[in-house]
Amino acid sequence: MAPKTKTKKQAAQTHQQKHGYAFGGPLGATAISFGLPTLLYLFAFACNDISGCPAPSLLRPKSLDLETLKQEVGWPDEGIWGLGSWEATGWTLAYYLFNAVLYAVLPATEAQGVELSSGRRLKYRLNAFATSTCTLALLAAGTYMQGAEFPVWTFIADNYIQILTANVLIAYALATYVYVSSFSVKPSNAELRELAAGGQSGNLIYDWYIGRELNPRVTLPLIGEIDIKEFMELRPGLLGWIVMNCAFVAKQYRLHGYVTDSIVFITIVQAIYVLDSHVMEPAVLTTIDITTDGFGFMLAFGDLVWVPFLYTQQTRYLAMHPQQLGTLGLVGVGALLLTAFSIFRLSNSQKNNFRTNPDDPSVAHLKYIETKTGSRLLISGWWGIARHINYLADWLQAWPYSLPTGMAGFQILSAGTKAEGAITLLDGREVVPGEARGWGIIFTYFYVLYFAVLLIHRDRRDDEKCSMKYGEDWEKYKKIVRWKIVPYVY
């Protein structure tokens, strides 16, 4: 008898058994997809410019009154419907369209992506740096003419919750669109469309979250073809990170009449981080996000919501409760950032040089393991210290973003209270640490904790992938390079 062919469901199950679920499978995907947006709303309301950070009632949970809490956090009078607005959604969509127009009209270089399973390569139009500099130049011109009252800055500050909602809805809609569209992918198609290896489990919520199609694209009238994943990876969210930081700098000036060194430091170094990624745009084409992961809610939400709204918690906090670092403080956080960035750049450059030209004098002395696949695994230099020394550098870079907020936490008191050590706003209200001191760390240092968890998870995913690829050679490598991220610790 001829062997029976597997059904699509059986094939999907076999595939998933081989690769395994990530992020806790369907239950984990569901929890993340609805839990993380909720977390951002909690952060937005609990740490606010009405009553404090955190809201006073949250410090006394035993006597918590829901109506009082609603007043303290600024819960909309319209209830849940007040979380969004047509105006904020319209301007948010206009921002995305503006990014797409700049993508189409500004000068660009063309690059090829990595080789697909078909043996062919996709072409990419790269001009993220031109897009960001053009946008920032326009915002700078508007600020020069109108100062902190420039409408872009005031609109972001006044409609923060509604802009958050608009981006959450866009992420949900985009993930749904690419999921449905992925079922039109046909084998050996002329458009070079492929499905992602990890996004074909057959479970709807998991595949929607993790992404079925590897590199979904869309053709827009007058704009042309856009690679959705690459576009969302570098443009609206990352650029939005800078824009929102600037909006909070302007808010600090409107509230206090001055701008502190701490908020300026964070805004500048984070802008450099983003602009550096835009300058290095070709490098993103070799990252796991582009080469391996499908585009689903995970990347859509991460790119468009998580990055611009979580990563700006420090400047949002400092806009209300300013902190001066002084010369020594600036030198300290600057030195930590420079050290971390140097490790990141030097280690990645060393690996890149070794991959492209192992005979280069700068890397020719490095020791390595030759695997059965033909690949070489470094066991000396930066990569002999830890398997992911670049992850350690990444994590260390997170600390200077949070340290300027100090022992975070503040309360907002009525005008005329004359509390000891209070900072008086231009409208007369007073900001004082009070009993909230230290509790604000939950919001301003969460990024450090989150990034640690993210990097540990990435390390585990990479370990599983390399174990499948290199087999016993990978086990041999791990015995030589014992530490995963932090030398002598982890």
From TrEMBL:
Task: State any GO CC term.
Answer: endoplasmic reticulum membrane
What keywords tag this UniProt record?
Lipid biosynthesis, Lipid metabolism, Membrane, Oxidoreductase, Steroid biosynthesis, Steroid metabolism, Sterol biosynthesis, Sterol metabolism, Transmembrane, Transmembrane helix
A biological process term (GO) from this entry:
ergosterol biosynthetic process
Point out the signal peptide segment.
none
Q: Which domain of life is it from?
A: Eukaryota
Name the Pfam families on file.
ERG4_ERG24
InterPro entries xrefs: ERG24_DHCR-like (IPR001171), Sterol_reductase_CS (IPR018083)
User: GO molecular function of the protein, one example?
Assistant: Delta14-sterol reductase activity
Main subcellular location of this protein, as a coarse class: membrane
Its localization reads: Membrane
> Which residue windows are transmembrane per the record?
21-44, 88-106, 126-145, 160-180, 258-275, 295-313, 325-344, 436-456
The keyword Zinc is annotated on this UniProt entry: no
- Membrane topology annotation: Multi-pass membrane protein
* PANTHER family assigned: DELTA(14)-STEROL REDUCTASE (PTHR21257), DELTA(14)-STEROL REDUCTASE TM7SF2 (PTHR21257:SF52)
State the similarity comment: Belongs to the ERG4/ERG24 family.
Q: What is this protein called?
A: Delta(14)-sterol reductase
Taxonomic lineage: Eukaryota, Fungi, Dikarya, Ascomycota, Pezizomycotina
